[in-house]
Design goal:
single chain, 217 residues, alpha/beta, two-stranded antiparallel ribbon, 14 strands, 30% helix, binds 1-O-pyrophosphono-5-O-phosphono-alpha-D-ribofuranose, binds uracil
């Protein structure tokens, strides 16, 4: 793990595997095409998903190999919901589903007001048994933390206990805001950036993740 200002903070995990850092570098490059960008977001979500599920409990099962019977491990009845924050979070869903094909997917629609940077919720649809699930919120960018905090508040109101936030690039301001806002949420990021600019964009960042995933700019 890289040393960071959050290194003593158990609820923040920087996923800095060399392959992750390599892929984040390509993601940042302004010359990276929409196709490549989308593919990298999917791949990074998969890597990050490994890290964010590391504590899932296991149970013993009996397996017959071609040679003998042995005791092997399987994940013990962990039910997961992946919750993308629309739009950009959608880019991470496929990678997460590759890892956990039985997971359900709930959606929370949020956009930042370009002037105030305040989040506005415009859509929400969750699986019916959501309270029995570990919820993994996915969104490539954690800037001020406003959108993530609003999504976390919404999930807490539904009675969800285990909430994890998976982002690809985070600003220190956003991490601090989320950790202070919710006492139990755990935050995973593939990069910890320097700061926000006057428009609340992450520096050095990668620009507008939604526009780069969907080719809308
Ligand atoms: C982006 C990003 C996050 C949010 C982060 O979404 O995907 O949801 O901004 O900023 P914050 O931490 O300051 O809230 P945006 O509102 O641009 O919407 P989009 O995904 O539709 O592009
Ligand atoms: N949203 C983005 O897509 N990028 C940023 O840098 C900040 C918010």
């Amino acid at each position: 793990m890289t040393t960071s200002q959050f290194e003593d903070e158990e609820r923040f995990v920087l996923v800095d595997h060399p392959l992750v850092q390599h892929k984040v570098a390509i993601l940042r490059d302004k010359e990276t095409t929409t196709k490549q960008f989308r593919e990298l977001v999917r791949e990074l979500a998969l890597f990050e998903g490994y890290e964010a599920t590391r504590d899932f409990p296991l149970e013993d099962i009996e397996v017959e190999t071609p040679l003998e019977t042995c005791i092997a491990k399987q994940v013990k009845g962990k039910k997961v919901a992946i919750i993308p924050i629309l739009r950009a979070g959608l880019g991470m869903v496929e990678g997460m589903l590759e890892l956990m094909p039985s997971a359900r997917v709930g959606h929370v629609g949020m956009y930042r007001d370009p002037k105030t940077h305040e989040p506005h919720e415009y859509f929400a649809k969750l699986p019916p048994d959501i309270t029995s699930r570990t919820c993994m919120i996915v969104d490539p960018m954690l800037a001020t933390g406003g959108s993530a905090n609003a999504a976390i508040d919404y999930l807490r109101k539904q009675g969800i206990e285990d909430i994890r936030l998976l982002v690809l690039v985070a600003a220190p301001e956003g991490i601090t805001s989320v950790l202070e806002h919710d006492p139990d949420v755990r935050v995973f990021s593939c990069a910890l950036d320097r700061e926000l600019n006057e428009h609340a964009y992450i520096l050095p960042g990668l620009g507008d993740a939604g526009d780069r995933i969907f080719g809308t700019k």
